[in-house]
Amino acid sequence: MIADHLLLGREGEDAAAAHLASRGYEVLERNWRTPRGEVDLICRHGDTLVFVEVKTRGQGSLAAGTDAVHGRKRSRLLRAAAEYLSAGDLWARPCRFDVVSVVRHGASLRVEHLEDAFRADFERSGGRGWQPW
């Protein structure tokens, strides 16, 4: 039997993928894993690759899903994205990081999409950017 929080997370990712697809995003990968991290959704929107973190919250949650994407989580996303770009020789493609927050309200889900939620932190990497552009 699957735990309730895992079912809610899967339902949230399904809702996020459907929301993005309805807005012209092509979902390329779901739950793309590497030893360095995981990306919930990897999409293409026009010429841009979009790495999407999905945060799902139950009814009554006080914290917004977007608030949960901070330091360590961002670092893991950046490392996983870098590995994805390297594996596909996609470094020349523009890319960005989005966050989709999904909140349960009774029987329905509310989806909020924050485009360009954060950028790679070049200063923290000692001036070495994680991408060559």
Automatic annotation (TrEMBL):
GO molecular function: nucleic acid binding
Superkingdom of source: Bacteria
Coiled coil ranges: none
Pfam families for this protein: UPF0102
HAMAP family in alphabetical order: UPF0102
Matches recorded under PANTHER family: UPF0102 PROTEIN YRAN
Family indicated by similarity: Belongs to the UPF0102 family.
Name assigned to this protein: UPF0102 protein NNJEOMEG_02740
Source organism per UniProt: Fundidesulfovibrio magnetotacticus
Lineage, opening ranks: Bacteria, Pseudomonadati, Thermodesulfobacteriota, Desulfovibrionia, Desulfovibrionales
